[in-house]
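fyi for ur records
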Amino acid sequence: MGLILKNKNLELQIDFPHENYSFSRFDWTGKIVSLKFKDFQFASIEDPNAKNQNLFGKGFYNEFGIDTALGFDETTIGGWFHKIGVGLLKKEDALYAFSKPYKTKPAEFKTSTSANQILISCISTLVSGYAYELRKEIRLQETGFTINYSLKNTGEKTIITDEYVHNFMALNNYHIGKNYRLNFPFALKPKLFRETLNTESAVCISKKGVIFNCSPNEQFFFSNLSGGKNVPAAWELLHLKTKIGIREKSSFQTSKINLWGWKHVISPELFFEIRIEPNETKEWARTYEVFEI
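which gave:
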């Protein structure tokens, strides 16, 4: 069942590293699978039609290096490369694909808990000159939670990657549609988006945010929402009928924001660019708040 952190307002359920999800994409440290506020559930799932849900994302899963994993390019076919927060993956062809089911050698994980927090460490071995120690603290707050990250480069080469939280969300499984509104703290300019997938025209983009004409039967996707500019790493999702909202505010600015969704889920993604020299450590944080409108 994992760990449940709970107070008078919130209940947060977190799976342990080797529990349930064990695929080669998302970070195994701090898999947040459920967030409840009073009678409202915010966590959704990636694919409701999947026979094995433990191969797909849910809740507030994060990932390092969606475009290319650490050390992939230097690794020969048949060798092993790092996926931060997971372990070593076996390289089978020349192109990295985040959705591919790679053979995995899990890293070493350590976990400690208290009444309102969990601390999980992921310790890698040295492979191809790369090694790291990831520490993630998830702390329950009165009206939300904070994820504190610490990534130390314990290897010989510079770590260059990025990290984001996929944020698989829907309020009480209500379909995405006219009752939802997604706001960003900057003006949206669709002409500057890199990719746009909106085949049903269900998604409407205005300068102030994202609204919906209808519930989308097909997946939608938009990339580079900031137009390549550095902007505050934040978003706010409102459900107008229930008058409940959730927001994320991070400790960094970002130039990469993506948005993915489907009928049952909406996922704003704030990317954090990472560059860490050997023996150095990078720290950052994401804070989530649940509120009534």
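Residues 17 and 28 are 5 Å apart (CA to CA). thats all i got for now
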